[in-house]
Write a structure and sequence with these properties.
The protein is built from six helices and six strands. It is of the alpha+beta class and 143 residues long. A hairpin with a 2-residue loop joins strand 3 and strand 4. Helix 5 packs across helix 6.
Length: 143
């Protein structure tokens, strides 16, 4: 990141007493992570900072993990490169996983041979959600 981009970035950050770098700028409307345009491309702020610290892009198949519970934090001390499975375990540990399903529910859904609609009604989720689980597009980290 060049100096101008760094200044623009830090103008949107509030550093708290406990070491969080809270993003005050634009948030992605879908996932609510902080984002900014860098080199003509919208990027998440926490990934921008992690890549700066690592001195390289995040490896294929990996992502940026928050070691704190704060979604808008982009402190380099609170970020780590990791796998989706590690990230999912972080969310379970921190109580921030946004799912009404448990890991055991997902295992049961994958083994269930009923129609998606029936399974969805049992777990009070959508048929689409069941399809994502069965096709391992969601809960990929779970064996």
């Amino acid at each position: 990141m060049n100096t101008e981009d760094w200044i623009k970035f830090m103008d949107n950050v509030e550093i708290t007493e406990d070491g969080h770098w809270i993003w005050l700028g634009v948030q992605n409307p879908g996932n609510k992570y902080g984002q900014m345009k860098l080199n003509g491309r919208k990027r998440t702020c926490h990934s921008i900072i992690l890549e700066e610290v690592l001195g390289r892009p995040i490896q294929k198949g990996k992502l940026t993990r928050h070691l704190c519970k704060e979604k808008l934090c982009c402190s380099p001390d609170h970020l780590k490169e990791g796998t989706p499975a590690e990230n999912a375990l972080d969310k379970i540990r921190d109580g921030t996983m946004l799912s009404k399903l448990t890991a055991q529910d997902v295992r049961n859904i994958r083994a269930d041979t009923r129609y998606f609609k029936e399974i969805a009604e049992t777990y009070n989720v959508t048929k689409h959600h069941i399809g994502l689980i069965k096709n391992r597009k969601s809960w990929k980290w779970l064996d």
